[in-house]
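Sanity check

After download, print the first record. It should look like this:
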Amino acid sequence: MKQGLFALGMSVVLSIMAGCRPQQEDWKLVWEENFDQEDHFDEASWSKIPRGRSDWNNYMSDFDSCYAMRDGNLVLRGLVNYSLSADTAPFITGGVYSKGKVGFSDGRLDIRAKLYGAAGAWPAFWLLPENEGWPDGGEIDIMERLNNDSIAYQTVHSAYTHVLGIKDNPKQGSIGLIDRDDYNTYSVEMYRDSLVFFINNTRTFAYPRIETDKEGQFPFTDKKFYLLLDMQLGGSWVGEVDPSDLPVEMEIDWVRFYQKKKK
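Expected structure tokens:
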């Protein structure tokens, strides 16, 4: 009986360990970022995201206080703007992307991070194509989290979903549970005929290429995507920011990219 319990216990341990990474016999690690630099992220792979006019980037800032390297993590912050008197934005946020530096396709991307909550906080990890406009080029949202929720959103966008408004054939996105107080791993597997999403190695949903006479349904092959890691505050989706909840942070432990082993 004790041997049976021991075997069962080892099976549980091995299952938990397997949940931390894709099956090693199928995948080969081809690129990783462990954020183990002491003072600054690696500029050979990452750049600060410039400010734009959309909800997701209208508070982006290169202000040093929005960024930190701490205990092997990249820290991105959302702050009340008390410091930049010439900047009219009420809040400032940090974000980095691999645009023009590191591209991803035909593989599996894993991101391990800890998210801290605040009213109006909207951290996200997502992919956009190099040199192609939105929404025609496609968008892959690996993780979006609102406020202090115990769920994360994973979604795809394209001309098919946004311009034509077809969001249920196939289903455009899903949600998955996260541990609000610890690190979670968010993943997407990019195939030529589908995108498959995971949270903590639990499959949440898949978005397939389908037969259709409508244009732009699956613009996710034959191109490189760059990765965005950003903290944002406020907007029409997440709602108003509570300044008393700030500053807010997220800690990104690592990013890993795998490709299928050749047989």
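If your output differs, re-run the checksum step. Summary of this record's structure: The radius of gyration is 19 Å.
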